[in-house]
Amino acid sequence: MHRRSQRTHAGGGSGIGLMITQTLAWNGAKVYIVGRTASKLERVVETYNTRDLPGRIVALPGDVSSKEGVRALHASFVAHEEEETKAGGKGAKQPAAALDVLVNNAGVASAKVETDANASAEDVRRSLFEAEQSTFDDWNGTYSTNVTSGFFVTAAFAPQLQRAGEREKGWSAAVVNVSSVSGLIKHSQRHFAYNASKAAAVYLTRMLAAEIAGGGGEKKGVGVRETEGGGEGGGGDGDGDGDGDAKGSVKESRLKIRVNGIAPGVFPSEMTAGESGGDQKSELDRGHFARSHGEDVPAGRPGEERDMAQAVLFVVGCTYLSGQTVVVDGGYTLGAGM
């Protein structure tokens, strides 16, 4: 990463989130890690904020499961940045808090429901409807964490992202939504709610990119027009209804914010391994993986830290990339069907 003062905000102190945190910090970024458990975040800070780390990891406890929580998180981030500016003696004329990269990585699994290709209609009802674990609460909770939180966090931090995008010519701030290959394939993998939520996260990435970087217009090139009459519209005769020729300058509502996603395959995390160690990292046995998934994943192994590092650096650093979801799965989707 070429920016010496890169400020990033990654949600995650374990699994893929920790991989991203370390990647950005080792490339000189100040990384805010967000989570509800302060002790877990502090453990990451104590473990990985080494003297030779070019960047820095900062714990920022917060809850992104509600608008109130997101609002409080935003206020905490701004206050922390302003406090550091004052402590550094940079003066009151320094620009307001800016955020170069936002990583939406909050995620939960859903309840597992059994399905069978040879099931009767009654079997389907029994498995998908009558099963005790198949509930509206499970669906709503999964969607709220995997989709809704990312939407509101991105919206809340839009001003800080835009400030970062305006600071340097040729640079645009980046939002990275971490979804999953489970949201791209046609099978449920016995996790209907989870896979559906990840599919929604992939599409949310596309919509946000179109609305933020694409100007929000339904027609190509359409943006917000500023007219002499003070109105705003697609064309405009000054009354804002867009039904005439625009008089004066035209301002497109495109912001210098890119929104992209990463869809990982199987990577070691608390979700896939079931636990994490004292270093907040999880492990997947390569031999077991090869025996159980070898035919499904051409790479013959689970994802590694370096794989995620290369992916996130590409997505963050490539300013010509917008509205895309980069699949990092060892080739799994080639056979799974999308």
From TrEMBL:
CDD domains: SDR_c
Signal sequence extent: none
UniProt region (Disordered), positions on chain: 215-250, 266-303
InterPro entries linked: NAD(P)-bd_dom_sf, Sc_DH/Rdtase_CS, SDR_fam, Sec_Metab_Biosynth_SDR
Coiled-coil regions listed in the entry: none
UniProt KW keywords: NADP, Oxidoreductase
An MF annotation (GO) of this entry: oxidoreductase activity
Listed Basic and acidic residues bias regions: 217-228, 278-303
Keyword Signal carried by entry: no
PANTHER family hit by this protein: 7-ALPHA-HYDROXYSTEROID DEHYDROGENASE, SHORT CHAIN DEHYDROGENASE_REDUCTASE FAMILY (AFU_ORTHOLOGUE AFUA_7G04540)
Family membership noted in the UniProt record: Belongs to the short-chain dehydrogenases/reductases (SDR) family.
Protein's UniProt name: Uncharacterized protein
Species of provenance: Purpureocillium lilacinum
